[in-house]
What does this fold into?
Amino acid sequence: KGTGYNYGLELTVEKLFAKHYFFMFSGSLFDSKYKGSNGILHNTDYNGKFATNLLSGVEYAVGKSKKNTVSAGFKLTYAGGRLYSDVDTAASNRIMDVVATDEGTNVNHFANYFRTDLRIAYKINAKKSSWEFAVDLVNITNQKNVLALTYAPDPTNPSASPLVKNYQLGFLPIFYVKVDF
It folds into this structure.
């Protein structure tokens, strides 16, 4: 049995789509903690302290009858790094998995999270259907954002730390076609 709290402040500024474009900025400052049955106050897993997002897009009618559209947009995210706990290396080596210490729960931060995505699309609006051809460029800067620690000892170097950082997906281009009818 335990208790927890979450509090923060958020600001959003938005321009709804009109005159061919839109944008939105949101920023949050927050704190999120819990007190477990041991009576010790800890950060929750997602207490990154802040998160910001900026997104924008444009769209223009094209073609002889101006029924088709070409659009482009981007999303930028910058947020506090994920938290992780101190690790009991001896216990981790015994069970061959990451073992966190109770007193060091969520006291460490990975580097802050940063990602930029771009999107370009062309949409053909026909009489009874529409066809959209697009490319999403996810994490265009190929930023290495840490996901978690894993236990992966190097057998060629037993004195090295058995803990390895796992990273989220790097740059990923996604090409797609969407048909609505």
Q: What stands out?
A: Residues 3-83+107-145+169-180 form one domain. The chain has one domain: 3-83+107-145+169-180. The mean pLDDT is 95. The longest strand covers residues 3-18.
